[in-house]
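Can anyone check this?
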Amino acid sequence: MNLMATMLASGALRFAFEKATTEGKICIGVLIVVSIFSWTVIITKSRQLYRARKMGKRFFAAYRASRDPLELHRSKKEFDGAPAYELYATGAEEMDYHLENNPLQVERTRYPAAGVATQSQPDGIGQSVTKISHAAFESVRVALERAASSEALSLEKGMIILSTAVAGGPFIGLLGTVWGVMETFSGIARANAASLTAMAPGVAGALIATVVGLFVAIPAMFAYNYMVTTIRAITQELDGFATEYATQLEHKYVDNRALAEEIRDALQGSLGRATPPVPDTGPEVAEPAFS
């Protein structure tokens, strides 16, 4: 009662609530519970989305300022609250795991220009680079897709409460109103007193349920529309970053050599091995020809 007296400060609303039927007051109580859950979601989700946008901007600025896609991960920089950072951290951890447990040592040979080769470096300059195979990189892609889905679900968590408040609030209020009007007309019919004085208190008590239902639904509707738009923008930004991040990881850490280049490197490696010397059997002796 004290909560309702605080919410319904108007004298007309207070009068209507006092004249409401028991069924109408039950509907109003249900609407108050829905409103509490709705405002809890509005406050918590607003803070979450604000932090996601703020930390997301910081993360994207730091990420695009680095040249190596794993630089932020290896420097232990954190951007808690940014969905893109959570996706980035998941992909970086998966990539580090494969670089450590399933590495490929790729020999990169840079050949000097014609006429520049020396006796100490006649064939070129070799450099070993650690990469992973395409098969291992598929698990990194799966981890990125899983992280993107998880972050999207986290952003949408609780939105069902707002949509329920928007759609269900007016109907719950309408139920209380219809029930109250039915009770009012039933009482008038039993009393045989069809006067405005007899009808007004009951109708006013019935309409208060619809008013409370609208009080619940209108703020939830505005908050829901704003949050859905914001979440959609963040999700699209997250999907774009996942594609960009996977492409950069593939260019930097995946063995993308063409088949001809792999065969050439394998042949060079086999020809470079020392071949065993042929034993010297002495001068050849011509066999006599017999006629």
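Reply from J.R.: I decoded it. Strands lie at 104-110, 125-131.
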